[in-house]
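From the pipeline queue, job 12 of 40. The input is one protein chain; the requested action is below.

Action: predict structure.
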Amino acid sequence: MTGFAQARLAALLLPSALMLGALGSQYIGGLFPCEMCHWQRWPHEVAIALALFAFPLGDKRSGRIVLALAIAAILLSGAIGVFHAGVEYRWWTGITRCSAPPSGGSDADLLAQIMATPMIQCDVPQWTLFGISLAGFNAIASILGGLGIVALWRRKP
């Protein structure tokens, strides 16, 4: 199997495995995703579709472009995971209503902001292992996996 074929297969399997893990933690483990969790899922969904689309295109220029886009989507999910993990660890403030504190105003304004805030907070990890949240694990797997796929692709036969 060529490096391109291995990379194409890995670009399908990695985001598929990460999406299965996310969906399993949600539907089996009872961990409900926050807004930023969904942001991390979208690039994986795009990567899966692109990787599937790359199979019939083969090693032609169009197939290589589609595979490069799939890898970029995987890396984008990792970058979003880094941002989300940073919000959870309080390295920086989140930009969504599920992590930003109320901005002030009258009592009625504060109450409206609180009522509009989702129940699942983006700045509070629901689960950790060795101090790493699911967002952190997604960041690690997506970035290292994406770079590994690039290395597979560039590997000489």
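Job complete. Helices lie at 3-27, 35-57, 61-88, 107-116, 134-154.
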